[in-house]
Design goal:
Blueprint (H helix, E strand, L loop, with lengths): L2 H127 L14 H6 L3 H5 L1
């Protein structure tokens, strides 16, 4: 080997060492950038996890509140339903009582209408005869012919 080939080989080796140093520097820079990116990604994952936990907590609170409201409304609905049933039962009971007394009330109304007609007829007759209508009544306050025609006090009322 001659001297020029040795110098050429040394120059070539020196260029290789320079290229290796450049590549090592690039590798170091890329490693640093990768570490920075890894750190940034870890930080973003922590933030995302924290945000997720906050959202889950808020949604859980909203769910709990909604469930409480539903329970309250269900209780109120049940209470109203029971009150409606109680009122319906009371009205049914009152209606049955009215129906029970209906024949008696109809007879009473009929008797009162009949009595009213008789009193009007008696007053008309008294006016025609020139007698005061109160003079033709007995102590009970009823026209004497009505009281006299009733078989008993019960018939006057029922």
């Amino acid at each position: 080997m001659n001297r020029s080939s040795i110098q050429e080989a040394n120059s070539h080796i020196e260029m290789l060492y320079e290229r290796i140093r450049e590549l090592e520097a690039t590798l170091a820079n890329q490693s640093e950038a990768m570490r920075d990116m890894q750190t940034e990604h870890e930080h973003q994952l922590q933030q995302l996890s924290s945000y997720k936990d906050t959202q889950i907590s808020a949604l859980q609170q909203h769910l709990d509140s909604s469930e409480h409201t539903v329970r309250k409304l269900m209780k109120k609905s049940k209470s109203r339903e029971l009150e409606a049933q109680r009122r319906e039962h009371a009205l049914t009971s009152e209606f049955e009582r009215i129906l029970y007394y209906k024949p008696t009330l109809e007879k009473l109304v009929s008797t009162m209408n009949s009595l009213g007609e008789r009193m009007n007829d008696k007053e008309t007759e008294c006016v025609q005869r020139g007698v005061s209508p109160t003079e033709s009544h007995d102590d009970s306050g009823y026209p004497s012919d009505v009281v006299g025609s009733a078989k008993s006090d019960k018939e006057l009322y029922f």
